């Protein structure tokens, strides 16, 4: 493995053959086979990814507007931090948050907020000013 990585200019930094954590295949199969949300939501059973992408682009446009900050009598433009959201087959991850399976309340809330044109409410704690 080390030689393979070195061939591509990469370096192995992991532990020598030691696995971290435990792999629970039953839990993974249960996650993948879960079909319905654990609570009622207004989301459709299937979400159109084009609409989801369009809503995210709209939110990105809003977030990219620079904010003027007054520091010691000098007005400066403040850039917003990037906030990635990763979508997987069985769930999503917000930067700094745990993995949310699509059937859980948190993932349903994030998707509902985005599809309604709002930033996910979960971000309110990290970005209280918006």
Describe the secondary-structure layout.
Elements: H1 2-7, H2 25-33, H3 49-64, E1 67-71, E2 74-78, E3 85-87, E4 91-94, E5 99-101, H4 105-115
Can you describe this structure?
The chain is of the alpha+beta class. 32% of the residues lie in helices and 15% in strands. The model has no long low-confidence stretch (mean pLDDT 79). The longest helix is centred in the middle third of the chain and has 16 residues, at 49-64. The strands form 2 sheets. Strands 3-4-5 form a 3-stranded antiparallel sheet, with no helix packed on it. It has helices at 2-7, 25-33, 49-64, 105-115; strands at residues 67-71, 74-78, 85-87, 91-94, 99-101. The chain is flat, with a radius of gyration of 20 Å.
Quick recap:
With 130 residues, this protein is an alpha+beta fold.
Through-space gap between termini: 45 Å
Helix- and strand-based class? alpha+beta
Mean pLDDT: 79
- Most strands sheet: 3 strands, antiparallel
Task: Report Rg.
Answer: 20 Å
DSSP E strands, number:
5
Shape: flat
Q: How would you classify the quaternary structure?
A: single chain
As residue ranges, the low-confidence spans are none
Fraction of residues in β-strands: 15-25%
Describe the strand arrangement of the main beta sheet, using strand numbers: 3-4-5
Helical region count?
Answer: 4
Name the descriptors.
5 strands, 32% helix, alpha+beta, 4 helices, 130 residues, three-stranded antiparallel beta sheet, two-stranded antiparallel sheet
């Amino acid at each position: 493995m080390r030689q393979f990585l070195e061939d591509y200019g990469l370096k192995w930094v992991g532990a020598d053959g030691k696995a971290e954590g435990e792999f629970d295949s039953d839990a993974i199969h249960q996650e993948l086979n879960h079909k319905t949300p654990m609570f009622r939501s207004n989301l459709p059973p299937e979400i159109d990814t084009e609409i989801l992408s369009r809503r995210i682009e709209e939110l990105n446009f809003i977030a990219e507007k620079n904010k003027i900050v007054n520091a010691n009598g000098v007005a400066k433009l403040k850039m917003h931090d990037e906030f990635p959201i990763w979508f997987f087959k069985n769930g999503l991850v917000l930067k700094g948050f745990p993995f949310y399976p699509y059937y859980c309340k948190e993932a349903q809330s994030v998707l509902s907020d985005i599809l309604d044109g709002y930033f996910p409410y979960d971000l309110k704690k990290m970005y209280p000013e918006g």
